[in-house]
Specification:
Strand order of the largest sheet: 1-2
Radius of gyration: 15 Å
Structural class: alpha+beta
Order of helices and strands: EEH
Largest sheet: 2 strands, antiparallel
Number of domains: 1
């Protein structure tokens, strides 16, 4: 997930080097993880996990997807843990 771009109202991005892209987004819910995250040096600055209550600034579309998850799944999961 791109976490450093400014909030925009479109999946279209124009980058400082002139590249243009319509970003696709895949979101995964991870409850357990082992191993080491590996990044593509040419494409990524950093990889790490974030808790839902400590998210960085998100792009418009990333924020919408996570808000949807929180409203529709996260509360359900918390109620059904015990």
């Amino acid at each position: 997930m791109v976490v450093s771009q400014k909030m925009v109202e479109s999946p279209f991005n124009l980058y400082p080097n002139g590249d243009q892209a319509y970003n696709a987004l895949a979101v995964y819910v991870c409850k357990e993880y082992s191993g080491e995250l590996r990044k593509c040096e040419e494409e990524s600055l950093e990889l790490r996990f974030f808790s839902l209550d400590d998210l960085p600034e998100l792009s418009y579309i990333s924020g919408k997807v996570i808000d949807h998850y929180i409203k529709n799944h996260h509360a359900y999961n918390l109620v059904n843990l015990g």
